[in-house]
Write a structure and sequence with these properties.
The complex is a heterodimer of chains A (187) and B (198). Chain A has 187 residues and is mostly helical. Chain A has helices at 2-5, 9-31, 34-50, 61-83, 89-103, 110-128, 132-143, 148-155, 159-186. Chain A starts with a helix and ends with a helix. Chain B has 198 residues and is of the alpha+beta class. Chain B has helices at residues 2-8, 10-14, 20-32, 34-51, 62-70, 90-106, 120-126; strands at residues 110-112, 135-142, 165-175, 178-181, 192-196. In chain B, helix 3 (20-32) crosses helix 4 (34-51). The chains are: A mainly alpha (187), B alpha+beta (198).
Chain lengths: 187, 198
């Protein structure tokens, strides 16, 4: 990052390559909109570039990066709420379909593939309906795998609040998935 | 009650943050409470599904798009910059020095005072009800010195007690310790003069 701050374009390119997947995944899971996630990921890296000299070297780069991404995602959610343009579930389904094809096991039967796709769609939808402040914490913890302390830094809230939000988000998610869980438990 | 306690530990159990004592207690509870066991299984299955969602890949041209934008973007001002010595332009130093000299030259003739007790009659006339009220700062000028007729003036006295002192009251506003000439003051409050006879 210090090389990026010194206007080293190669280092910045490397930085984008290294983190583009995580940033895109985070914002697409929070927003449930693949196209918007691409644009937002681009905006995240642009902000990193513009504010490269303001990065504090004592802190972890990924924390700073996720803070920018989380803030932009929050802004986007709020903008959508204001415009009453809620989540694009079609885009989510399209994305999940693409990903499912990408990761499909060749030995998997068509029925199993369909079931898995349906399940992923349902889980994606369930996450999308968790309220924003809980969803961000949930995605950072259970999808991105960030430690609680880092999530607290990213979201700018105390560690206890992070734990409480994640617990609540997990409870909400479980309730939303309850029919599928019951079905999976009996089969 | 026991089940509530067990369910509060589900999150920490999933995160592998339980102490050995808590883990042992939860395992014991699970053996005696199949409902909590089933609840935890569902809880962990929901989180497994979440964690195993396929990752969204970045757009193939993301790097190129970002670089294309950065090439025409200037960096933001450095707010974390080092706090080093800051050079003061020579012109500013010269102006400050000139001001000090001028003040020293003028001081024997003119005295500037911070707000003290102004002429009550003048103030009463100038004070309006609408906020904010200007602070009246007195510019005090002494009458031209003439040879003392009724006794000598003591060295530490700014005024000749035998003469009238003219107070010219300029309405100014004090803001953060700096006095600025106030506009919008009632006309009658401007340039009030009072003659005080000792």
């Amino acid at each position: 990052m210090s090389r990026v701050a010194a206007d080293d374009e190669k280092s910045f390119t490397e930085l984008v390559r290294r983190f583009q997947g995580r940033v895109t995944n985070l914002v697409s899971r929070v927003l449930n909109d693949r196209e918007c996630a691409d644009d937002l990921a681009q905006e995240v890296f642009l902000r990193v570039y513009v504010h490269r000299r303001n990065y504090r070297h004592g802190s972890k780069f990924s924390t700073w990066l996720f803070t920018i991404a989380a803030n932009l995602a929050k802004n986007e959610i709020r903008r959508r709420v204001r415009r009453r343009n809620w989540f694009s579930l079609d885009a989510l389904q399209e994305m999940l379909k693409d990903s499912a094809i990408q990761l499909a096991d060749p030995s998997e039967s068509r029925e199993t593939t369909l079931e898995r796709e349906q399940l992923q769609t349902a889980v994606g939808r369930a996450i999308a309906t968790v309220p924003e402040k809980y969803r961000l914490a949930l995605v950072l913890r259970d999808i991105e795998g960030l430690p609680y302390e880092e999530i607290a830094e990213v979201l700018g809230i105390p560690g206890g609040t992070v734990r409480s939000r994640i617990n609540r988000a997990r409870g909400m998610l479980k309730r939303k998935l309850q029919p599928l869980l019951t079905k999976a438990g009996t089969s | 009650m026991i089940c509530d306690r067990a369910r509060r530990l589900f999150g920490a159990c999933w995160d592998d943050e339980l102490t050995q004592a808590e883990r042992d207690w939860l395992d014991t509870h699970f053996t005696s409470c199949p409902r909590c066991r089933a609840e935890y299984d569902e809880f962990s299955r929901a989180l497994e599904w979440t964690a195993s969602l396929p990752r969204a890949e970045a757009a193939p041209d993301l790097v190129d798009r970002v670089l294309a934008h950065t090439r025409r973007t200037a960096p933001a001002p450095d707010v974390v910059g080092e706090r080093g010595a800051r050079w003061v332009p020579a012109a500013v130093v010269a102006a400050a020095a000139a001001l000090v000299v001028a003040v020293l030259f003028v001081m024997p003739h003119t005295v500037w005072r911070t707000p003290s007790l102004p002429n009550a009659a003048t103030l009463a006339a100038s004070i309006t009800k609408g906020p904010p009220e200007p602070v009246m700062v007195q510019r005090v000028t002494t009458a031209p010195r003439r040879p003392a007729q009724h006794g000598a003036v003591t060295a530490d006295n700014l005024f000749d007690p035998s003469k009238d002192v003219e107070f010219v009251l300029d309405p100014v506003t004090l803001h953060r310790g700096r006095a600025t000439v106030t506009t919008g003051i009632r006309r009658e409050a401007r340039g009030q003069q009072a003659i005080i006879t000792f």
